[in-house]
Amino acid sequence: MSEVRRTDSLIVVGARLNSSRLPRKHLLDLAGVPMIVRIFERLAATGVPAVLATTSDDYNQELVRLGDESGFAVVTYDGGVDNVVGRVDAVVRNYQPSRVVYVCGDCPLVSQGYIRLALQALHDNPDWEQVVPEPGRLGETVIHEGILCLSRAGWDELVARSQSSLEQEHVGLALTKGSPLKQGMVRDADEFYGPGFRMSVDTAADWRFMDQLYCQWYASHEGPVSLEWVVEKVRSTGTGRINSHVMQKSGYRKYGSVLFVTEAGPTKGLGQLVRSVRLAERLCELAGFGVTLWVVGTPQSLGCLRTVNHEWVDSEADLLNRLTADSLPALVVVDLFPDRMEHPEKLLDVLGELVAQGKRVVGLDRLWPWHRALSKIVVPCLVYRGEQAQNILSGPGYALAPIWSPVTELPVTDRPLLTVMTGSSDAIGYGGELPQLLDRILPENTMVQWLQGPYAKPPRLPSKCRLKWSILEAQDDIASVALTSTVVLSVYGNTVLELLANRIPVAILPAPGLIEEVEWQTIRQQDALFCVDPTEDGLKLLSHLLLSDHARKKLLARTDGLGAAGGLQRAAACILATLDQ
After folding, report:
1. In what order do the strands lie in the sheet with 468-473?
2. Ramachandran region of residue 108, left (φ > 0), alpha (ψ -120 to 50) or beta?
3. Residue 412 pLDDT more than 60?
4. What pLDDT does residue 281 have?
5. Which of 287, 343, 348, 496 is the most buried (most CB within 10 A)?
6. Is the predicted pLDDT of residue 5 greater than 60, yes or no?
7. Do residues 304 and 270 lie in contact, with contact meaning Cβ atoms separated by under 8 Å?
8. Do the strands 506-509 and 99-104 form a parallel or antiparallel pair, or are they unpaired?
9. 177 burial class (0-12, 13-18, 19+ CB within 10 angstroms)?
10. Who contacts 210 (Cβ-Cβ below 8 Å, separation ≥6)?
């Protein structure tokens, strides 16, 4: 923008899509609207002009287009993508405001009230160069995040002092080493002191927390989310537990990165990919890692990939070339099945060479026979039948299953709801005959919803159905579906571990060809589990479970002893320990 437009006060929002922990986070929806749009909706209530400062590279053009479509101003910066101070300063010099409010673009609950309060204080005290919140009466900090309020002289001083790359990347960091600015303080409302939950969106857990708040607000309200309502909601319901484990990154240090290698496709399903994404998210949240995910398979648009930086790898040969040619991070996590590979011995050699170079290589699941060559093996399962070794961690205690926070309540109904999950590709082919059996045998008032995975064919329903059926295609988030189900009927695999970890009544279908027969027979012998054969007799047992609240409670009481909850945290901590070693 060449025209200089002078203004009394100006809000500058900094945002770009190149985040290492949560890519394209500004475009993620909050109750159906992109996060960056939600921020500008809130800022409109201040009555102060607001401008988005982003970079001019092609990757961020979607932010520019969104600004045009949504009606907020955007200024692009030609300098370094990590120089946020320079980017914001370009906007300030364009508009020449007397007072500057910098707002970080990952804070969708930015306080309009505090911004008005701070700007009024700067107006009333012309000698102040910065306004900060007054500490609480007991020393508590205020809830507001991502806001910096300065006079023009204060902003110019910040720019002059931001010399290092870290100071240029983190706006305000240069003022933390003994601020030369003349500061004034303002006191905000008591409820905003010391509530103790994260307000910024830096990780997948932060986004899920924020989206839940937004969805709950707009279910019964209009207009921007009330911050007073948020504080009360979090205090009364404990919603903040969703992202309470997330580590706050420091502006004073650089953070490491991790590479995940996994696979997906019509013959492989999505189980490995989904659990790799879950583990990658947890490493981001616990240690601030940037993540790259390589997926061996044909490119596919999958919702589970929206929270991680990812690339599709065309072939096994391409993967081996990448692993030998690229400059890889210190930590590599591999979730591949050797029995699906043409030359597994070549992959073993490459991974062994990475370990010899001093990198930590962690294998998941079917890689346990390679434990002598790798740093650590994590085998998430109900029953482990492989070799025992000090660096093999196995069992339900390492299930890579997130703990869901209920977003809906089970509807009060006298009609049981059965959800059928046969895997992303329905590799067993349950969609052929199982619907006919279910429709014939289950109680007549049963409702059945069938989750059809992205690689699976539609189930073959009877020409004339007794039961009420619905088909849900390519469901990315099984939590909202499972939490409203009376019982879930699922093929044995990663999904079963998630259901058990979240105390969902689950009936387990066999997975011939996907697991060894001896493992399946061992699982069947465990009294805690409810295994169902896809036969008339087996489905009659399922009918009893659907109809009997007592039977479901007994089942949940038995599965409580499996210890599957907390597996993600446990596995991530063990992987991080390999770096310490």
Report:
1. 468-473, 447-452, 417-421, 487-491, 506-509
2. alpha
3. no
4. 95
5. 496
6. no
7. yes
8. unpaired
9. exposed
10. 30, 35, 108, 109, 201
Q: Is the pLDDT of residue 207 over 50?
A: yes
Per-residue pLDDT tens digits for 478-531? 888 898 899 999 999 888 988 998 889 999 999 888 887 888 888 888 888 999
How would you class 330 by CB atoms within 10 Å of its CB: exposed for 0-12, middle for 13-18, buried for 19 or more?
Answer: middle
C-alpha span between 43 and 421 (Å, rounded)? 43
In the DSSP assignment, the letter for residue 246 is: P
Residue 380 · residue 563 · CB < 8 Å: no
pLDDT band at 561 (very low <50, low <70, confident <90, very high): low
SS3 state of residue 322: helix
Rounded to 5 degrees, what angle do the CA atoms 504, 505, 510 make?
Answer: 110
The single-letter DSSP state of residue 248 is P
Paired tokens of 295: 């997926």
Report helix angle 61-70 to 35-44, nearest 10: 40
- 32's CB contacts (< 8 A; 6+ apart) are none
- The number of C-alpha atoms within 13 Å of 148 and in the hemisphere containing its C-beta is 22
Rounded Cα gap, residues 329 and 323, in angstroms? 11
- Cα–Cα dist 483/407, whole Å: 8
Please state, as a whole number, how many other Cβ atoms lie within 10 Å of the Cβ of residue 405: 16
Q: Residue 341: CB partners within 8 Å, gap ≥ 6?
A: 316, 347
Region at 288 (left for phi over 0; alpha for psi -120 to 50; beta for the rest)? left
Tell me which residue has tokens 């398979």.
Answer: 297
Phi, psi of 120 (to 5 degrees): -65, -40
| Cβ contacts of 111 within 8 Å, gap of 6 or more | 143, 144, 147, 188, 192, 227
Q: How many residues does the chain have?
A: 581
Q: Rounded to the nearest 5°, which phi and psi values hold at 374?
A: -105, 165
Average of per-residue pLDDT across 106-134: 95
Average pLDDT over residues 320-340: 93
% of the chain with per-residue pLDDT over 90: 71
Q: Please give the biggest Cα pair distance in the chain.
A: 83
How far is the C-alpha of 105 from the C-alpha of 199, rounded, in Å? 12
> Is the CB of residue 5 less than 8 Å from the CB of residue 43?
no
Pairing between β-strand 130-133 and β-strand 147-151 as defined by DSSP bridges: antiparallel
At CA 460, angle to CA 455 and CA 461, rounded to 5? 130
What whole-number distance in Å separates Cα of residue 193 and Cα of residue 227? 12
Report CA-CA distances (Å) from 115 to 40, 51, 102, 122. Answer: 13, 15, 10, 11
In the sheet that 130-133 helps form, which strands lie side by side, from edge to edge? 73-77, 50-55, 9-14, 99-104, 147-151, 130-133, 183-186
Grade residue 564 by pLDDT with cuts at 50, 70 and 90. Answer: low
Structure token pair of residue 107: 């804070």
| Cβ contact 43:11 at 8 Å | yes
